[in-house]
Design brief:
The protein is of the alpha+beta class. It has 4 helices and 7 strands; from the N terminus they run βββββαββααα. The strands form 2 sheets. A 5-stranded antiparallel β-sheet has the order 3-4-5-1-6. The protein has a two-stranded parallel sheet with strand order 2-7. Strand 3 and strand 4 form a beta hairpin. The chain is globular and about 60 Å long. The model has no long low-confidence stretch (mean pLDDT 85).
C-alpha cells in the first residue's frame, strides 16, 4: 500500500525521480514543477503504521527540508492506494496546480534538518506554515505562534518584541 501527497515547494529539483529513506520509511519524490503542477511525494506504508502516522511523517520531512533550505512549501491533498504496488512502480499522483513559484533549483535532498523532539517538529511545521503563507494575516499568526511555542503564556513573546522595539529609533 502506498500513500501520495502533492508538494508545492519553491525549489525545483533537476532529476526525474528521487528515492530516499527517512526515519525508517522508503520514499519516492517526483518533481512536476515543469508541468506547473505540485511535485509528488510517495511512500510505502510499512506494516504497523497508519495513514495518519505516515501523513505526519511526510509533513515532518517537508517541514524539516523547507526549514533547512529556507524554502516555501506546503502539502496539497493525499491519496491512498490499497493494492500492493511497489514504490518503484507507483505512478500515483496527488497533483494540483502549483501556487508557489520555483525560486531555486537543486540536484539532491542534501540539506535536511534533523528533527528529534516533538517540539522541534511542531515548531518546524509552524515556521513552514508562516513562511509559506500567501496571506499576511496568516503569516503574522503563524510567526506569533512560533514566538510563543510551546507555551500558552504570551508574556515572554510580548516582552521579547517590546525589548526589540524599544531599541529602535523613534
Amino acid at each position: 500500500m502506498v500513500y501520495a501527497v502533492g508538494v508545492d515547494i519553491s525549489i525545483g529539483f533537476r532529476r526525474d525521480k528521487y528515492y530516499f529513506h527517512y526515519k525508517g520509511v522508503n520514499f519516492k519524490y517526483v518533481p512536476q514543477y515543469m508541468n506547473g503542477e505540485t511535485d509528488d511525494l510517495v511512500c510505502e506504508i510499512p506494516k504497523g503504521k497508519t495513514q495518519p502516522e505516515i501523513y505526519e511523517l511526510m509533513t515532518e520531512f517537508i517541514a524539516a527540508f523547507a526549514f533547512a533550505n529556507n524554502a516555501k512549501a506546503s502539502i496539497q491533498g493525499g491519496i491512498v492506494v490499497n493494492n500492493p504496488v511497489k514504490l518503484i512502480d507507483s505512478r500515483n499522483r496527488s497533483s494540483q496546480k502549483r501556487s508557489i513559484n520555483v525560486s531555486e533549483s537543486m540536484d539532491d535532498f542534501y540539506k535536511i534538518s534533523l528533527l528529534q523532539t516533538e517540539d522541534q517538529i511542531q515548531l518546524a511545521r509552524l515556521y513552514q506554515e508562516a513562511f509559506s503563507a500567501n496571506n499576511v494575516y496568516l503569516k503574522i499568526l503563524f510567526f506569533w505562534h512560533c514566538l510563543v511555542y510551546p507555551n500558552s503564556d504570551e508574556n515572554k513573546a510580548v516582552k521579547y518584541i517590546d525589548d526589540l522595539v524599544s531599541e529602535l529609533p523613534k
